Amino acid sequence: MKVSLAGLELINPAIAASGTFGYGIEFEEIVSLERIGAFVTKGISLEPMAGHSAPRIVQTAAGMLNAIGLQNVGVEDYIQRKLPPLARYPLCKVIVNVFGYTVGDYIAVIERLNQAQGIAAYELNVSCPNVHAGGMAFGSDPGSLEYLVRRAKSASTRPLIVKLSPNVTSIAHMAKVAADAGADALSLTNTFLAMSIDVETRRPRLSNVTGGLSGPAIKPIALRMVYETARAVTIPILGMGGIVTPEDAVEFLLAGATAVQVGTASYADPRAVERLAHGLESWCRGHQVERVASLTGALEIPRA
Ligand SMILES: Cc1cc2nc3c(=O)[nH]c(=O)nc-3n(C[C@H](O)[C@H](O)[C@H](O)COP(=O)(O)O)c2cc1C
After folding, report:
1. Interhelix angle 246-255/272-286, nearest 10 degrees
2. Is residue 236 scored above 80 in pLDDT?
3. Domain 3-51+70-193+215-295, CATH homologous superfamily name and number
């Protein structure tokens, strides 16, 4: 079940997605951390962030809408309190999701994280749709994306994964921009800009008015984006968007992903990512797949 990507060796391709798995350590009594390949932390910023006021989460048909606003403890507290206990689980790789309002913020967070032990890679969040600056503003403009990724790559002492926004016209183009600027791997997709209205009150259901849609509702679109990205770049892809079952994950692998992330499913079942790791192994055994890595990009398109 091993996979390797951007210099990381994972015991299996199941990864818990950013923002749905806290800082990882909160899950130690729920999930066997040694049985999942990795997890990605909540977006970490230079200073602590309080996030938006409630309501920040709304259930939708086949998914959910969130506008958390990147609530997090800030890089210093993260390094002092949240990271050290994870040394107990060396098999589970820690990927830190990095957020900034400005290029300088991103670089400062990376430079501080470089000094800490126990981190396997960084995931650059250029795709959060729920903040007024930073995040998606970088991920939806090729020039800004290129500049940020280049700077982040030269500041980073660890593999740099760039998490792309799906809220763009051509995901393949943005993927190529990030790859050419030095990204070691790409994560996609983040959430899709969306909204929900309460018709009785005539008010938006989220305090932020708009938010990001995730869960099974986005799966076919995210899958198409992974497929298009895999045809545009040669660096590894971490695919996500509505993955719940082993079959969902296999679809992403066949489309070109090397590993998969599970986000919203953890809200319905906090053990979803561990279940996926087991389920994927059973699926491979049942289908005589000897190495899960052989599924990556193995999509067969019949000739017309
Ligand atoms: C409540 C919530 C918070 C999230 N916070 C972050 C975040 O801090 N950084 C980030 O890059 N993605 C964040 N995401 C996006 C997820 O990591 C993932 O890309 C997205 O939800 C699609 O996967 P899913 O359909 O399996 O949830 C968040 C998603 C949710 C639902």
Report:
1. 70
2. yes
3. Aldolase class I (3.20.20.70)
Report for 124-128, 141-145, 251-255: range of highest mean pLDDT: 251-255
Q: Which residues contact 297 (CB under 8 A, 6 or more apart)?
A: 230, 254, 255, 256
Residues 234-242 have a mean pLDDT of 98
| Catalytic residue list contains 128 | yes
Give the Å distance between the CA of 17 and the centre of ligand 1.
6
Distance CA 266, CA 244 (A): 9
Residues 256, 227 contacting (CB under 8 angstroms): yes
Q: How many Cβ atoms sit within 10 Å of the Cβ of residue 278? A: 17
Query: 302 CA to middle of ligand 1, Å?
Result: 34
Q: Is the pLDDT of residue 304 over 90?
A: no
Q: Which of 25, 128, 194, 237 is catalytic?
A: 128
pLDDT, one tens digit per residue, over 162-192 is 999 999 999 999 999 999 999 999 999 999 9
CA distance linking residue 85 with residue 29, whole number of Å: 13
- Using 50, 70 and 90 to split pLDDT, how confident is the model at 136? confident
Q: What is the per-residue pLDDT for 38?
A: 98
Pocket of ligand 1 (CB under 6 A): 17-20, 42-43, 66, 68, 70, 97, 125, 128, 163, 190-191, 214-215, 218, 240-243, 262-265
